[in-house]
């Protein structure tokens, strides 16, 4: 089968990892082009990889390149929707980092466009491709947990460098969006109906006045009765912590571990082991797996594993969180027909 | 040192365990009397233990018995406050199962009375006496966690027998009251300032109309910025599950395990181990330790480890939960001077 | 039921713990007398406990005291056999710390005497009373492991203070004797038939010339084919480490943990938890349970849980180890009829 | 940098995995040819991979192909030495699955030949490339364990299909050879000086008469005093179990886990999780890493991570085991100068 020629948007930290995956870890794809508006960034990444990909300054130009079969979008969150739409209009299959969009209006336009142009779309909810989360989902779907009653998902980033450039509401739109998707994934078929969120700047209280938030706890009620919490913090000094818990009428499942290896030390101070400090280490295989899944879906004309509807559902919760923090009260989520398509 | 002669109120499940502890596991105390209004219940317990304690039908009579040095109250929750007050008025040292009271007014009367009659009071927050919780508290007090930012405590009972006799709001007043105390204990010196609670009857939805609730999730904001969640469910088919998590600027601590023993099986189905199914097994040593601590405090004229103020603080959260569920919104906790004494 | 009046031999570290157990942790027994040839030692222990027990300098005098129902022997290992025999000749029920004897001849005399005088004898193989080991044994007996094929048991003491007073062959006769009994316990019904032992002074090589050994590894072949290893070292800086592993045709079981509590720390250095540093902490409940079991057996005229035959079987392995180290080769164990009674 | 063109010998189970690694998981190498004497085997593997590699029936022909830069040998163990020698004589860099040879004479010829023809040689001791083992080794080298005193390594294969074709002494030469290398790796710089081995056919006793052995326990003494055990069994019904333990004057390290994912189930039967059933799953990353390391060493003219001397040292132990089983006694290992080069 012919290799899928990928055009990558964004040569930053995440883009570089995806580029390396496409170039070195996937047999079904090749890195055909990289676009980044930062001068020289695309070229530098291509050089580092020893790749022969083309470099573009403008993603829109790359989208018009007929050599590109599919695009991987790893640009800043606020450009995602626009990039997806333009790529779709040029008939490209699209893999986009989360979030797919930052407003519901944008999300609706994205979904409408990919439907209109009939292109595959996959959103980067990588935890769905982690062995831990996937096996829990699988067992929940087959009924092993019974009816879900209590759910929990959390994300704790290892270190908060500079709060200054962090866009407003990032904790909901970019961090907890993962957890909202996880909770939906662990409660398959259920709809979130009410959200209550509290958030604060506890790591960097000096940035709170500018609207910066680094800590949040969210309560979500689902239409099947399940009550979920999502929790995030931007500075876990012990590493990159991603875990979940699902409790139902037939038991519980716990998901995730921050352990670096299966080597454990016993010494005069007690027992200890090392932790993973970086998302690309903790979720390495899941990052690779999601791209492999995308490439495979495109090549075989199959439905992608996580598409626009799932991304919109997670975004609905994130937007309700923002509303809840602003109004200091629980927010109902109305599910119009379009939510449910 | 002379043994402390204990009069026990309540010969039920928990009373029986405390009686056995007093009789067999504590060297500093003896079971002097048992009072239970259920005909024959006191006598039966005394007989089972092979004890020579006196039997009373009416706790009030027992409180007047000059042979009694201290009382242990294990009667139904709604009688606690009245029993404490009457015992205090008779000059008895009092250990009372949680909750100390079910309304703030009651709690205030209890605190006022024990102060007036100058008797020791200890409330049965047994988790404070578990090695797991105690060591976490100790390290938090000495600063190892830094500033607490996220806290979690949960209680899942193993089986819900008959919902019919369960009094209204039991999940907050009798179950989660433990978690509220744990959260306060893990965030020492901080005050809860806002509470949001959601609750439902998910185990037995058929009892929801009568006001029965078996599942709840609570969010608590503290005045030091920490955000806590407490979670309860009345039927964890895998056993009696009591855990907590504390996250702060210097790291995280996890507390609790449902493991029955350190024997692990590996067979064709994978790896497995047994769980504890009963609070008196999971918290066996903590139940003994709290009574030992009470007896020791009384004998040495020391302050008890957990008294009326701590119990009132947990109750404030429980009452705010009830308010939150009724009003479907977050509730502020006002701390009057009396809260803070 | 009348309390069993216990006469304790030995007021040292282990004797003191047993005394406290008898006095405070067992409802069916009382500490009636303590005998220790060290001047003032018995009195001091009795005083510390606030007990009203009698003090004896000479155990033999105590054995003649008609007030004594049973004795607990916690004197130095080389006096065990003689003490058991004298106590038995005075009609006392006997609980004796391991080893029951240090030679097979002694062991045979002990067994013969207790049979002749028809007194109950229990030997202090406390691991059989630990929840971890007991549940493994139970599941093995009911066939869950299939046929045992590989077994392992280890003992690592936390700290080697002064090697000077340690009697020759202590590592086999006093330390590994526990492991030999564990291996027999986990391979029920099988007979050890060949032993190979290597041993060295690795913690304190400067004492090797005097015959001191602090590290040993033993291989044991059983008549059902199972091959076992036992391992000991006198200085595990991380605590008191006692574990076992049983592997058979249907799976594996692992037994034991050095964890102090279920509180786990996550901080900038990784994940850590505390360890237990002392046998009386690690095996606290097993030490209590073995005495409770002994008292119960005596009071109810039941067979004790672990008697002379089991102790002799473990000793056979220990003696074969000594032979193996001296001859630097594997040693066959001959099972005469008397072994198998 | 130019890709290393690899010629693979052996299209069986392990060869197929290495082929896939070369083709799909390594960016620095390409699969240039496959040789397998079984008719059609090479072609079939090439086809399955969608590769354009050449197929050979005779490895010797492939060794003469000037397009081949390096060879990966995954043929039956008894052909390894001959294949290495022939490949070296044709100037090829060689990666060979363990064991490098099955006799010391063969091993010496291999080492002599690769030295003479000055070609790089790496032997497939994949555990050295597992994160778990590597981090333990690293910390031992930097002194964190102190002086090693007790070591353990074990291999338990998940299922014994047909014992009939298993060559004599396979358990030592092909299975435990891994553990011998692990023990050497965890005791860096020390020399094995005495070996005692017991072995039996416990899984398939019906094959014992033909010399088949499926269970073994080995004791190894090192010249630094450390005492090691190695243990193997051919049928662990719970999965592919590879673990090690290193104990020294400063503590202990445990290595390895059979856990499949970080998802844990809690249900009415207790707690459980899945296990890994297959070496290529358990050691997936280590298998890839060892080839990546080989390719990198060859391309950069660096010493390979594990060469002929290490392989010969492990083989010395394996041969001593065979001797020990035959003679039923401990065997001394003489280290001639050539051992120590």
From TrEMBL, chains A, B, C, D:
Recite the UniProt keywords alphabetically.
Answer: Oxidoreductase
Mind telling me which Pfam families this protein's record contains? GFO_IDH_MocA (PF01408), GFO_IDH_MocA_C (PF02894)
Under the heading SUPFAM superfamilies, the entry gives: Glyceraldehyde-3-phosphate dehydrogenase-like, C-terminal domain, NAD(P)-binding Rossmann-fold domains
Keyword match Oxidoreductase: yes
* MF GO annotations: nucleotide binding; oxidoreductase activity
Annotated Gene3D superfamilies? Dihydrodipicolinate Reductase, domain 2 (3.30.360.10), NAD(P)-binding Rossmann-like Domain (3.40.50.720)
What is the residue range of the signal peptide feature?
Answer: none
Enumerate the InterPro entries for this protein.
Gfo/Idh/MocA-like_OxRdtase_C, Gfo/Idh/MocA-like_OxRdtase_N, NAD(P)-bd_dom_sf
Q: Which family does it belong to?
A: Belongs to the Gfo/Idh/MocA family.
Full protein name: Dehydrogenase
| Species per Swiss-Prot/TrEMBL record | Priestia filamentosa
């Amino acid at each position: 089968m012919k290799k899928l020629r990928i055009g990558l948007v964004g040569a930053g930290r995440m883009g570089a990892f995806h580029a390396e995956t496409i170039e070195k870890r996937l047999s079904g794809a090749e890195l055909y082009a990289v676009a980044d508006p930062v001068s020289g960034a695309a070229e530098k990444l291509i050089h580092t990889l020893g790749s022969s990909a083309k470099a573009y300054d403008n993603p829109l130009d790359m989208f018009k390149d007929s050599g590109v079969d599919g695009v991987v979008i790893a640009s800043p969150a606020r450009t995602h929707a626009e990039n997806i739409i333009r790529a779709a209009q040029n008939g490209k299959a699209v893999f986009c980092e989360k979030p797919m969009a930052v407003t519901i209006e944008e999300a609706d336009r994205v979904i409408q466009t990919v439907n209109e142009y009939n292109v595959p779309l996959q959103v980067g909810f990588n935890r769905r491709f982690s062995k831990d989360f996937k096996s829990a989902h699988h067992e929940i779907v087959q009924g092993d947990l019974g009816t879900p009653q209590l759910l929990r998902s959390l994300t704790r980033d290892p270190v908060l460098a500079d709060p200054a450039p962090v866009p407003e509401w990032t904790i909901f739109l970019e961090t907890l969006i993962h957890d909202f998707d996880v909770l939906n994934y662990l409660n398959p078929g259920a709809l979130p109906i009410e959200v209550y969120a509290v958030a604060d700047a506890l790591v960097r209280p000096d940035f709170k006045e500018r609207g910066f938030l680094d800590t949040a706890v969210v309560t979500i009620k689902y239409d099947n009765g399940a009550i979920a919490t999502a929790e995030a913090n931007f500075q876990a000094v012990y590493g990159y912590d991603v875990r979940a818990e699902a409790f139902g009428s037939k038991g519980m499942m716990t998901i995730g571990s921050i352990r670096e290896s299966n080597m454990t030390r016993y010494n005069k101070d007690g027992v200890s082991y090392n932790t993973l400090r970086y998302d690309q280490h903790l979720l390495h295989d899941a990052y690779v797996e999601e791209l492999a899944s995308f490439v495979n879906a495109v090549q075989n004309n199959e439905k992608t594993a996580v598409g626009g509807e799932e991304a919109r559902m997670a975004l609905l919760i994130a937007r309700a969180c923002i509303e809840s923090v602003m109004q200091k009260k629980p927010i109902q989520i109305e599910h119009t027909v379009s939510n449910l398509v």
